[in-house]
Specification:
The chain has helices spanning 9-30, 42-49, 53-61, 78-84; strands spanning 39-41, 68-70, 73-77. It has a domain at 39-84. Helices cover 51% and strands 12% of the residues. With 90 residues, the protein is an alpha+beta fold. The N and C termini lie far apart (67 Å). It has a 3-stranded antiparallel sheet.
Length: 90
């Protein structure tokens, strides 16, 4: 049995409601659907980076860029392409 000393019923109710609301907010954030990645074609990736298809293939083999395919189509995740770009010191 738990005894609460020097706390009013209203204060206890407020504390419980606050704790439940905080837990619900945490669950709400965790249960949000993750957005689908934005896919770009091999052609668009090559144009974006100003390189040829053989260069993209070479970067894929060197694990610089990760390529994904469906059948004969090759795609790249835009986030991964942007992440692969590294700043050069000025």
């Amino acid at each position: 049995m738990v005894q609460l000393i020097q706390i009013t019923e209203e204060k206890l109710t407020d504390n419980i409601l606050c704790a439940v609301k905080n837990e619900l907010e945490i669950l709400k954030k965790e249960l949000q659907p993750k957005p689908y990645p934005e896919w770009i074609s091999r052609n668009d990736t090559a144009k974006m980076l100003g390189v040829s298809f053989p260069t993209l293939y070479s970067w894929h083999k060197k694990k610089i860029l990760c390529a994904y395919s469906i059948g004969t189509r090759v795609y790249y995740k835009l986030d991964e392409v942007n992440y692969a770009l590294t700043p050069i010191a000025c």
